[in-house]
Every structure is written in C-alpha cells, then in structure tokens.
Amino acid sequence: MDFAKNRILAKIFYEIAEYLEMEGVEFKPRAYRKAAFVLEGMEENIESVYAKGGLKGLESMPGIGKSIALKIEEYLKTGKIRRYQEYKKSFPLNIDELISVQGIGPKKAKTLYQKLKIKNLDDLEKAAKKNKIAALFGFDKKTEKNILESIAFLKKSKGRFLLGEILPLVEDILKKLKKLKQVEQISVAGSVRRKKETVGDVDILITAKNPQEIMGYFVQLPGVVKVWMKGPTRSSVRMEQGFDIDLRVVKKKNYGSTLQYFTGSKDHNIVLRKIAIEKKLKLSEYGLFRGSKMIAGWDEKEIYRILGLDWIEPELRENRGEIEAAQKSVLPELITVKDIKGDLHCHSDWSGGENTIEEMAESAIEMNYQYLGIADHTKFLKIENGLDERRLSLQKKEIDKINLKISSRNLNFRLLHGCEANILTNGSIDIKNSFLKKMDFVVAGVHSGFKMSRQKITERIIKAVKNPEIDIISHPTGRILKKRDEYQIDFDKILRAAKQYNKALEINSYPKRMDLNDLNIYRAKQAGVKMVINSDAHHKDQLDFIGFGVGQARRGWAEKKDIINTDSFEKLLKNFR
Ligand code: DGT
Ligand code: CA
Ligand code: CA
Prior knowledge:
Elements lengths: L3 H19 L5 H14 L4 H14 L6 H13 L3 H9 L4 H5 L6 H11 L4 H9 L2 H6 L3 H17 L3 E2 H17 L3 E6 L1 H4 L4 E2 L2 E7 L2 H8 L5 E7 L3 E6 L4 E6 L5 H9 L2 H13 L3 E3 L2 E4 L2 E4 L3 H7 L15 H6 L14 E5 L10 H10 L4 E7 L11 H19 L6 E9 L10 H4 L6 E3 L8 H13 L5 E3 L16 H10 L3 E5 L9 H9 L4 E4 L11 H10 L13 H8 L1
Parallel strand pairs: 4-7, 11-12, 12-13, 13-14, 14-15, 15-16, 16-17
Antiparallel strand pairs: 1-3, 2-4, 5-6, 6-7, 8-9, 9-10
Helix pairs in contact: 1-2, 1-7, 3-4, 8-10, 14-16, 21-22, 23-24
This protein binds 2'-deoxyguanosine-5'-triphosphate and calcium ion (2 copies).
C-alpha cells in the first residue's frame, strides 16, 4: 500500500506547527504536531479513511480535531491547503533548516526574514559573519559564535540521514522486493547493513531471474521522486525523503563477493585486499581469485574463511581491530535484540509521552519483555510537565494497580517505577534522595545548561554518579544528531567514576539522540563499565526503537554481559539495591 498522502500531510502539518509558533499562537502547534505524528504512524491510508467515513471518519481518528480534519479534507479534494500556501507565500523561507540552528526558533526566523531577508542557512551564515545577528537580537558575541558553530555542524551533516528515519522505509522496500517471484537473494549493503547512525545512500543487492522486470518495478516504487539511472544491472533513485537508493543485480556466483565489497567499509576492504595479496590471491567485487581461477564468490563467509578469518559481523567492519580479532578467533559475541529483557527508560502521558502507562505496558508485553521501567521527567522540566514528589507518589499507586491487574494474567511481566530526574547545574538532583530511595530505580540526566566548561560539566555528572540513589545516567553525551554536538565532557573521568560506583551509562535508542556512539560504547566496554540500552520511547510504538540502540551497541563491540537490561528482573533489582 502507498502512504504517500499520509506522509505529505504529516510534513505539511509539521510545517504549519512551525508557522503557528512564528505567529506566537499557543497550543495549536502541539495539536498539529500530534496530528502529523498520528498520520505518520497510521496503518491505513488517509484517502480510504476519508472515503469510508468522510469528515466524521477523519475526526474520529486519535489526535485529529475538527479544524485539522477540515484541512485534510481540503487537501484530499483540492490537492492544496490554502492556509499553508498563504504561509509559504508570506514567508518563503526554509524554516526546517533555519530552526535546526541552535538558538534560532520560529519567532527569530520570522524576524530574520523580515529584517534581513534571511531565507536559509547560507543567508544566516553570511549575516552572522558580519555580526548582523547579534546586532538584531542584542545577542552577545558568544551567542553569535554558537550560532556559527551550529551552522558549521549542520553543514557537516548535510546530505546524511538518520538510520532510524530511513531504516523502516528501507525494510519496507526490501519486503516488497522480496515478494517478487523473480528475486532470489536480496540484502541491503553499505552503511545501512553496518548500522551506521547516519547514512549517505542506501545500497541494495539482489540476484534475480529477470533483472529488467525488477528494475522496472523498482523505479516505480511509491515514494520515488526521481530516477537517476535505470540500467539492466544497476538503477538508482531519489526517494521523497531526500535520500537515494542504489539497486544492483548481480550474478549468483558473485553475490557473496559483491555483498562483501559493497558492505564496506572502505577501510575494512582495503585491509582485506592486502591480506589477499599476502596470500597470493586477489579480492574484488567479482570474487576471490588465484591467478585467473575464481576460488570464492557466491558466499561471503567463504571469502573470510579462505583469507584465514572468522566471519565478521557487518557492524564491526570499520577497521577498528576486527580483522586482527577475526584472525585470532577472538571476535566478540555481539548482543542481539533478542537478548533484551526489558526497557528502563520510557515516558507516559504523565509527562511528555503520548500513551497511558497501561498502553505502554501492553506494548512491552507484546514484545515479550519481562519488565518495563516508566521513567517520566521530574519537576525541573516544566515544558515536559515534569512530575513532583506528589505526582510521583500518585503514579506509583497507578503502577501498583496495573501490576496487580497484570499479575492475574499469569505473565512473567512487571512494570517498574522509576523517573528520569534532572542533574541540576550544581550536580544535585531535583527530587530529594529520601524520595528517590523509595523508587524501583532512578535514571538521571543533564537536560539543561549544556554550555558549561568541560571541567564543570564533568564534575556535575560525576556528582550524580556518586549519588547512591541513582542507577543509570541518561544522555551521557547530550548530543542530538545533525543538530547538536556532544557536550564537552571528560569521558574517561566519567567512565572511571561509573566503574567505581557501579553505575550504568545509557545507550539511548531514540533515532536522533543515540547518546553513546559506537566509539564511546567501545571505550565504556574496555573500561569495564556496564551499559543499558533504552528506547526513551514517548509513544508505545517507539519501544521498537530499541533495535537502533542495539545496532550501535553492536558497532561498539558490546556483548550481552556488558548490557544490564539483558538480566532477569530479579538480578536487575538486586543490582539496583
Ligand atoms: P554512506 O553511503 O556514505 O553512508 O556509506 P557507505 O559505506 O554505504 O558507502 P558507499 O555507499 O559510498 O559505498 C558502499 C560500499 O562500497 C562502501 O562501504 C565500500 C564500497 N566502496 C565504495 N567505494 C569504494 C572504494 O573506492 N574502494 C573500496 N575499497 N570500497 C569502496
Ligand atoms: Ca551507502
Ligand atoms: Ca552507494
């Protein structure tokens, strides 16, 4: 099924939300974002909802009120939304781009356009370099410097896409191609197969009976907006989300070597080719050769074996020691999604989340988890409606009630009551220790004051690590992919403290967060520090994000024993107390 209209409407609604914020309208932006979010996650296309139920049908969807339903109707009938067109006409600017700059929100974007005719990142950069921004808003030099840094950062990541954003789309396309009777073997290669946190383009390989037909089907997939090339063995398209997919059809006898070659990474392949040469062999995408005789090619494992290596998981192929480890047969046994027994960081509608605690629990039960830890924000985070001690106590009662209900179903499942408390600028926590003591577990993280000096912010986090009531440090680096760099911390110092006080650092699976990148995970593992892979879900469907965290953990060589939420419920709680 094609969900093109759902996606287009979602994108328009996200943009309308920004325009509303530009005008200083309250509450409505949130409603539009919610509607966009619902549209993105729908399992039915919006045209058929409307065809079946008309305006009433649209209104009966969660998160869609009267005025938004009318806009959907308008779009389905006319292909346009007048209000949106008007906004675009009065403010012809790249709003997504501008507000992704740290310190620039919709209102500032509006002023920038009105006063300086700034429409995009390039305009903004030029103006900032001439100190025009500071003059306009009364910013100090430092703020303007931050803006320039943020622009440089955005430019660096331009043209790369979050794995979490595109993987669901890629998996959908793989599924569609797999269903074709002509397709024999199929795999994604490149950085997607290696689960790199950001992806330049998507590479897919297949072997097939009738390549022409497959190419014909591929270039007409829903969501394709441009065909770069369409040939008998290779086609390349641009998807509406902006990323490209390369599809290659190869011969069966070359499938393994081509998969190996296009999985990369380039650095990994270079070393592999050297090893081949040392053995008087030659490795290329067409196979492994002795002289002109092909000795391997159809199977990837075979190539590694003949080169004297254990087969290497794609996530490890970055030339970071995996080849030496494969030679010595000491590769790590990487953690898998199946090893995860529960999630210790998700949000409910008590603060920031979209679903009730019970709905979150049901999703976790469906995922065969043994436990789910509700860790809502605490009171310092006012914008997220953070919980104070009184509401935390009420929440505890609610969780007890749900646990009781669930226990009658004879499931091996329990809800745990935690919170994601704030590490304040002086390292203290916004909820008293005497209260935290009563909770099942406590996550604590930095949610404000990122721009402190390296020494100060490190001390601040270490103070939280030493706090006996805290079990997990969330957002240990504070980065937001493509938006904000890690905050300056002395990571080695934090690792030493975490090891000494036996605290777990969080691998955050939320696609744009991914606190603890592959290299940091590797460092933590080497330092003997335990980690926890959490979804940070704000919606029940987002519990699935866990796979992205597991992907990064694998890239960081993490094994089951390194990750605490592979433990049973009993063992986990014993360690927390
Ligand atoms: P991306 O797309 O930037 O996220 O990263 P990759 O790794 O998917 O890179 P891509 O799409 O340019 O190429 C796919 C793989 O093909 C790459 O990982 C390794 C292989 N490859 C591409 N160009 C070269 C090359 O010049 N030399 C070698 N040895 N391998 C290459
Ligand atoms: Ca690629
Ligand atoms: Ca490529």
